[in-house]
Specification:
The chain is an all-beta fold and 53 residues long. The chain contains no helices and five strands. Helix content is 0%, strand content 28%. β2 (17-18) and β3 form a beta hairpin. The chain is elongated, with a radius of gyration of 12 Å. The two termini are 17 Å apart. The structure holds iron/sulfur cluster. Residues 7, 9, 11, 14, 16-17, 24, 26, 29, 46, 48-49 line the site of iron/sulfur cluster.
Length: 53
């Protein structure tokens, strides 16, 4: 699968995930926080995630 070498990702439940080698297939993703102030990596998310069917 063609993927973006600049976006490594291990979220294999996402429909944009390249399962062969753990990358994202999108050209660009949106990263965001789900707390008003982010204090750790757990406060951040990939907002481009979409559940695989
Ligand atoms: S959209 Fe986000 S979660 Fe989905 S494969 Fe790309 S980087 Fe990973």
């Amino acid at each position: 699968m063609k993927h973006n070498n600049s976006i490594a990702c291990t979220v294999d439940e996402c429909k944009y995930h390249c399962k062969e080698d753990n990358y994202c297939t999108l050209e660009k993703i949106q990263v965001a926080k789900h707390e008003s102030v982010a204090h750790s990596v757990e406060c951040t998310d990939c907002n481009s995630f979409e559940k695989e069917n």
